[in-house]
Amino acid sequence: MTALTHLQRLEAESIDILREAVAESERPVMLYSIGKDSSVMLHLARKAFFPSRPPFPLLHVDTTWKFRAMYELRDRMARESGQELIVHRNPEALRLGINPFTHGSALHTDIWKTQGLKQALDQHGFDLAFGGARRDEEKSRAKERVFSFRSAQHQWDPKNQRPELWRLYNARKNKGESIRVFPLSNWTELDIWQYIVAERIPIVPLYLAAERPVVERDGTLVMVDDERFPLREGETPMLRRVRFRTLGCYPLTGAIESDADTLPAIIREMLVARTSERQGRLIDQDAGASMEKKKAEGYF
Amino acid sequence: MNAEGRFEDVEAYLIAQQAKGLLRFITCGSVDDGKSTLIGRLLHESKALFDDQLAALEGDSRKFGTQGDELDFALLLDGLGAEREQGITIDVAYRFFVTEKRKFIVADTPGHEQYTRNMITGASTADLAVILVDARKGLLTQTRRHSYLVSLVGIRRIVLAVNKLDLVDWSQEVFESIERDYRAFAAQLGIEDVVAIPLSALRGDNLSSPSARTPWYRGPSLLQHLETVDVGGDDASGPLRLPVQWVNRPDLDFRGYSGRILGGRVRPGDAVRVLPSGRTSTVARIVTFDGDLAEARSGQSVTLTLTDDIDISRGDVICAAGDPAGLADQFEATLVWMADAPMLPGRPYLVKLGATTLGASFGQPKYVVDVNSLEHLAAKTLELNGIGVANLTLDRAVAFDPYASNRDMGSFIVIDRYTNQTVGAGLLHFALRRSQNIHWQAVEVDKQARIRQNGHSPCVLWLTGLSGSGKSTIANIVERQLHALGARTYLLDGDNVRHGLSKDLGFTDADRVENIRRIGEVARLMVDAGLIVITAFISPFRSERQLARGMVEDGEFIEIFVDTPLAVVEQRDPKGLYKKARRGELKNFTGIDSPYEVPAAPELHLRTMEQSPEESASAIVDLLVRRGVIRRSH
Question: Which of chain B's ends, N or C, has fewer CB atoms near its CB within 10 Å?
Answer without folding.
Answer: C
